[in-house]
Amino acid sequence: MRVEADQLFGYAGYSASVAVGILESNSTLLVSESANIVTQGDLVVGAYTSDFTYVGAISDAENNGKLAASGGAYRRQ
């Protein structure tokens, strides 16, 4: 996932931007009915997901600017 935000507004020397990324990810593993599994204890089956996440917000109040503020938030569910 890649989320980038440029400034929302730039007026009278002020600039702001906000970037929000929400990732909902599920991993599933299928053991088909044709599988022949013999165990003498617990059977642990797992799946692994790998991903790259970038969330960035950019603000620029330029040379004579008064204030530039940026915020970024990321949540994985």
Question: What is the compact description of this entry?
Answer:
With 77 residues, this protein is mainly β. It has no helices and five strands.
Share of helical residues: under 10%
What's the pLDDT, averaged over the residues?
A: 82
Please indicate the percent range of residues in DSSP E strands (runs of 2 or more).
35-45%
Q: Uncertain regions: pLDDT < 50 for 5+ in a row?
A: none
**What is the straight-line distance between the termini?**
14 Å
Label the structural class. mainly beta
Assembly classification = single chain
The coarse overall form would be rod-shaped
Strand arrangement, major sheet? 2-3-5
User: Number of DSSP helices?
Assistant: 0
Number of strands: 5
Total tally of structural domains: 1
Sheet of most strands: 3 strands, mixed
Tell me the Rg in angstroms.
23 Å
Element-level helix/strand string: EEEEE
Can you describe what's shown?
- There is one protein chain.
- The relative contact order is 0.45.
- The chain has one domain.
- The model has no long low-confidence stretch (mean pLDDT 82).
- With 77 residues, it is mostly beta strands.
- Helices cover 0% and strands 40% of the residues.
- Strand 2 and strand 3 form a beta hairpin.
- The strands form two sheets. The protein has a three-stranded mixed sheet with strand order 2-3-5, with no helix packed on it. Strands 1-4 form a two-stranded parallel ribbon.
